[in-house]
Amino acid sequence: MSDPQNPEPARASARRGRTRARLLDAAVDVFAERGVEGATVELICERAGFTRGAFYSNFSTKEELLLAAAEHGLAVSLERIEEAVGRLELDPGADHAAQVDALVEHFLGPEDPRGVRIEVELRRLAQDDPQARSLVLRINEHLESRILGVISSIEALGGLRLRAEPIVVVRTLVALHRQAAELAWLTGDGEVDLTLLTSYVMVATEAAD
Hints:
It contains nine helices and two strands; from the N terminus they run H-H-H-H-H-H-H-E-H-H-E.
């Protein structure tokens, strides 16, 4: 509990939080531009407007910063998806294809190419780094759990229901979306091609009675 007579600890904590946030923002840009090997602590600090001291008071290595950036990016994406549930309206009178198109368009907007590069770098690092490997597994588990919740909410709204086990649908959707997002990043396209993913949703769902 903070001491109302001594607000300095709370101010210091707020400053530290702002510093960390700026370092994360700078890191996302630098990692996306140069990858883990090309990024340097000096460049990240320069982009954030801090000294090396500010960096090392928050992170031990640039790899640790990459892990934090990946977790931050996932949290932002999941918050966007879950917030969209409250705005979703499925027309029960529409045919199955129209409902699927509305669903995909509603939830799967433009992908931030920086996030795609961060995820690629994280998975590459995980091949040799046990900490990164553990984070990848934890992120996958967390992602699946949250998306399962979103799917349950969509089913509760009526209109569509799954024709397969929810976890199978979630893992397939994640894999297809990741593949499409990486392809868009590699080719430099501005938009993710959701054709294959939309086709899968058509197969994996059916109109509710």
